[in-house]
Design goal:
The complex is a heterotrimer of chains A (291), B (260) and C (378).
Chain A (H helix, E strand, L loop, with lengths): L13 H16 L5 E2 L13 H10 L5 E6 L6 H14 L2 E2 L8 E5 L12 E5 L13 H9 L4 H14 L10 E3 L3 E3 L9 H4 L5 E6 L4 E5 L5 E3 L26 E5 L6 E5 L2 H9 L5 H8 L1
Parallel strand pairs in A: 2-3, 2-4, 4-5, 5-8
Antiparallel strand pairs in A: 1-9, 6-7, 6-10, 8-9, 11-12
Chain B lengths: L8 E10 L2 E11 L4 E5 L6 H8 L7 E7 L5 E3 L5 H9 L2 E4 L3 H4 L6 H11 L5 H14 L16 H13 L5 E5 L7 H18 L2 E6 L2 H7 L2 E6 L2 E7 H6 L4 H9 L4
Parallel strand pairs in B: 3-8, 3-9, 6-7, 7-8
Antiparallel strand pairs in B: 1-2, 1-4, 4-5, 9-10
Chain C lengths: L7 H17 L9 H7 L1 H11 L4 H10 L4 H14 L15 E6 L26 H4 L19 H7 L37 H9 L3 H12 L8 E14 L8 E18 L7 E10 L3 H14 L15 H7 L2 H9 L6 H34 L1
Antiparallel strand pairs in C: 1-2, 2-3, 3-4
The chains are: A alpha/beta (291), B alpha/beta (260), C alpha+beta (378).
Chain lengths: 291, 260, 378
């Protein structure tokens, strides 16, 4: 592997970090508004978290403790790769424990544990524009945001209900930030949307390939779009986590055999491990114990 | 409530060129609430250019277009901010295109097409939005069972009626129509014209209708403007202009219509 | 009993080791020499420099070796390296009119000042596989002769002098002069791409864009998707000097000599009986010898000028947002290949919804079935 000693702290040069921080400040000043920024080519491909990585690289300090998750787990391959990147280029402390982290970079989930005011969430965003699949033109969507013309967004929700009986969006569910900008919270399951509303933590969103940054400051109103008579609902499971017995967390489906055998396990690996350490046991663990 | 003695739309000295081509020149007129003005002429006469200029779709080179907003003041539509203008175009005004595909979202259902403007101005109750769409589909004589169908599955006449419903749902005061019956079969046209006449009367709409078809003009408009080569050559009460044309071009137009 | 799988870090390390092994291949086969790639796979190196946006033959050759011949992967390596380089400033614009020309052709004139020079080209070869290359036989030695090529003026200047060609800066696309009287050129590597884009940004985006994508779009314009009647006004290949004015010196010094390929297309004229018609142009420029790319770029450049030239935008090749948003293969491959990343959480959400909807339909069927049965029984 090539030597990384020739690089600046956290890889990016100071000018670039300054440019990104200016974009972040603008984003925080106008919650939910997408700020264009001159995304740099990083050593990872576009689409693999370069936006989140650039945001983290611009805000990380020597005393920060970094947690990186993907699909809620610390050990998925890309999370491992990104954590290693920061260990090498910044030499900072990393952790798998949510409560120990000062910066949490994430792809597609928000941790189950409540966040604190001294923590920052950095989201990896593939498509920052919530209207993109309704209107492919950037020139049009920019106008729609500027003029608060979000009728088309509600048309989509209306169509879902008329066709399926429910709103058919289950992740990357659009939200209204501070009753003004409509924002894509990144492909987190809608289950996680309520966690953004009035969170004590600062939430930063980076889209490297699309070159946009946006933010939700702490304690900001964030509401998922819905109709009065079809209110927003999060997902629920009949099952509890097979390992720790949790009933209020997002569960992953694990296929256990070819005959259709399945079990459900907490997506947030740190959360699940903590519960098991505290003595909670789900049906699979309990069954094991009974043998 | 707007004062019916004050004009709703005032156009003054309107001109538009396309490079060396003349679109329209020095057009002026006023429109009162509940009044329908027809603009007739052959293709290339400048009538569509005029319509686009007065409906904020095309910036004129010269002249002023003033509209009396709900606040009662006569405002220059090109001096307004873009948000104000776009709001006007979504609420107070309606624009019916010749080709309904230009005025509809072809990939969303009829119900969504009608409900969109309501949602754009803040309607958030699915049941109510659907109810309003249902009402309007009846009003324009479209089978309400088709509320979830895509416009592509509708006939031309039905698409046109859907376009009208989509436009009228927010209760506009002024409707611009560009050859609304163009491209439709004669019998379908007749039905559509009847509907339009009924709605315009019932809702007290003001309208500017561009058409090359004198029969449409006669049926729908109170007043008529005849355009030729970019200029208004004659205007007046519809019956007067059609029964007793003064300008040689108007005479030509009137005489060339096949009499049954 | 299911145990959450751990060990992602070890798996990645092992994958890297396996990759290095495969890259090297059979150890009985001699290891590739970077100089060989530079010399004998020169066109691959040229393409990687162009799409990597970095002129450094050795680095590009090394990237190709590291990327195992995957040219987009190699361009990516170059781009990532480029990000880390300190920026001293901008060079003086290169003057391709002063090029030491090795190859120069024009389809618009039979003969012209400076002549038509074929140079090293595949053009008139017969595409018959040469099996003698298997044995590595060297080609015959060539005699070096005297070059009688003087300075070769641009072909389009000939048309320009007659007033037949639109000015080089285009009609309304002329760059505006800023307060300092200087023409400002955007920098795509320093500003995010925004629409609508000016011609300078468009050309930068096309220059580093994927050759295959531009080839297909250029081809589509020739087949009627936004046809602009192109003629190859000029294609030239050769060396140009790169000048730079360091702040400390205050005067120009030559810092490099690079090879570029330049293509100028002569396209559909604009004008009518009353407005003096002129031909319009399309422009393509690449590092090294990349004719296909330079020509495709020129076709697409002209197509994207549709709005500027008051033409109807009706074909994909003329659609600025469509072309520019998707032209960069490093961005494209990143996003396409990101689908390999785990998406099981989003997928879980979809699964849950689909199952629910299917259950509702079944339940409805049962209810209707019951209702029918009750009706039938009555």
């Amino acid at each position: 592997m090539a030597e990384t000693s020739g690089y600046n702290f956290a890889y990016l040069d100071e000018q670039t970090k300054r440019m990104i921080r200016r974009a972040l400040l603008k984003a925080i000043a106008v919650p939910g508004y997408q700020v264009p920024f001159a995304s740099r080519e990083m050593p990872m491909p576009y689409g693999w978290g370069t936006g989140g990585i650039q945001v983290t690289a611009s805000i990380v300090g020597r005393d920060d403790v970094l947690k990186v998750i993907d699909q809620g787990a610390d050990d998925t391959t890309n999370a491992v790769s990104i954590r290693k990147f920061f260990k090498r280029t910044a030499g900072i402390e990393t952790t798998t424990q949510t409560h120990e982290a000062t910066i949490i970079q994430t792809r597609h989930r928000i941790p189950e544990e409540d966040l604190r005011a001294d923590q920052i969430m950095v989201f990896q965003v593939p498509i920052p524009e919530p209207l993109r699949f309704l209107e492919p033109r950037e020139t049009e969507t920019r106008k729609m945001h500027a003029l608060e013309e979000y009728g088309l967004m509600h048309v989509k929700l209306y169509e879902d209900i008329s066709q399926h009986g429910h709103i058919a969006t289950t992740y990357a569910y659009p939200v209204a930030v501070k009753q003004r900008y409509v924002m894509d919270p990144s492909p987190i399951p809608k289950f996680d949307n309520p966690k953004i509303n009035r969170s004590p933590a600062l939430m930063l969103f980076g889209a490297g390939r699309e070159k946009r940054i946006y933010a939700v400051p702490p304690f900001t109103d964030v509401h998922s779009l819905d109709f009065e008579d079809f209110p927003f609902e999060i997902q629920t499971w009949r099952e509890a986590c097979a390992l720790c017995g949790a009933t209020g967390s997002f569960l992953d489906e694990i296929v256990t055999d070819d005959a259709g055998g399945r079990m459900f396990v907490c997506s947030d690996t740190d959360f699940c491990e903590k519960r098991r350490e505290a003595g909670h046991a789900g049906p699979a663990l309990a069954a094991e114990g009974a043998v | 409530m707007s004062d019916n003695h004050e004009p709703l739309l005032v156009v003054d000295g309107l001109s538009k060129r396309y490079g060396a081509q003349l679109g329209c020149r020095n057009v002026g007129f006023s429109l009162w609430p509940g009044e329908v003005v027809g603009v007739v002429g052959e293709s290339g006469s400048g009538k569509t250019t005029l319509l686009n200029c007065i409906s904020a779709r095309l910036t004129p080179d010269d002249g002023v277009v003033r509209y009396r907003t709900r606040l009662g003041t006569l405002s220059d539509i090109y001096q307004m901010s873009e948000p104000e203008r776009r709001m006007l175009m979504r609420t107070d005004w309606a624009f019916v295109h010749q080709n309904p595909r230009d005025g509809l979202r072809m990939k969303v259902s009829a119900g969504a097409n009608v409900g969109e403007r309501l949602m754009a101005v803040g309607a958030r109750h699915y049941g109510n939005i659907r109810g309003a769409a249902d009402d309007w589909l009846s009003k324009v004589e479209i089978d309400t069972g088709r509320i979830d169908d895509l416009p592509a599955t509708f006939s031309g006449g039905m698409q046109q009626r859907l376009q009208i419903a989509r436009n009228l749902v927010t209760g506009p005061r002024l409707v611009f129509m560009d050859e609304p019956t163009g491209g439709l079969d004669v019998s379908v046209q007749a039905r559509l014209l009847d509907l339009m006449r009924g709605l315009v009367g019932e809702l007290g709409l003001a309208a500017v209708i561009v058409t090359h078809d004198l029969a449409v003009a006669r049926l729908l408009s109170h007043r008529l403007m005849v355009m030729w080569r970019g200029e208004v050559v004659e205007q007046g009460l519809t019956d007067q202009v059609l029964d007793d044309p003064q300008h040689p071009y108007t005479q030509l137009l009137v005489s060339s219509v096949l009499q049954p | 009993m299911y145990v959450p799988v751990k060990g992602g870090e070890r798996a990645i390390e092992n994958a890297h080791k396996l990759l290095a092994e495969e890259r090297r291949g059979n150890r009985d086969t001699p290891d590739l020499d970077v100089a060989q790639i530079d010399e004998q796979l020169a066109l691959a190196v040229d393409r990687v420099m162009t799409e990597g946006s970095l002129y450094d033959r050795e680095l590009a050759a090394l990237a190709i070796k590291q990327a195992r011949g995957d040219l987009i992967e190699a361009a990516f390596l170059l781009r990532a390296f480029r990000t880390t380089l300190a920026r001293f400033g901008y060079s003086i614009p290169i003057d391709t009119g002063q090029m030491v020309v090795r190859r120069r052709i024009s389809a618009t004139y039979k003969d012209l000042p400076g002549g038509q020079v074929l140079g090293p080209t595949f053009d008139y070869t017969h595409r018959l596989i040469d099996f003698s290359l298997l044995e590595g036989a060297d080609p015959e030695n060539l005699e070096e002769g005297e070059s009688d090529m003087g300075v070769t003026p641009h072909v389009l200047n000939i048309l320009d002098r007659e007033g037949l060609m639109e000015p080089a800066n285009g009609s309304s696309g002329a760059q505006e002069r800023g307060e300092d009287g200087e023409v400002h050129v955007g920098d795509l590597t320093r500003e995010p791409l925004e629409f609508p884009a000016d011609r300078d940004i468009r050309l930068q985006r096309l220059a580093r864009g994927d050759e295959g994508f531009l080839l297909a779009l250029g081809y589509s314009t020739q087949r009627g998707y936004g046809r602009n009647h192109p003629f190859a006004g000029e294609l030239r290949l050769g060396e140009v000097r790169v000048g730079f004015v360091p702040e400390e010196l205050g005067f120009e010094i030559e810092i490099a000599e690079i090879t570029v390929t330049e293509c100028e297309m002569v396209n559909q004229f604009k004008g009518s009986k009353n407005v003096s018609p002129q031909f319009t142009r399309g422009y393509g420029l690449t590092f090294g010898h990349c004719e296909r790319k330079a020509m495709s770029m020129a076709l697409v450049d002209r197509a994207l000028r549709a709005k500027e030239l008051d033409e109807e935008v009706e074909a994909p090749g003329q659609d600025e947002e469509f072309v520019l948003a998707h032209a960069d293969n490093v961005e494209a491959t990143g996003f396409v290949e990101h689908l390999k990343l785990p998406h099981y959480v989003d997928f879980q959400s979809e699964l849950e919804l689909v199952r629910r909807m299917r259950a509702e339909i079944e339940a409805a069927k049962v209810r209707n079935g019951d209702a029918e049965q009750i009706e039938a029984a009555e």
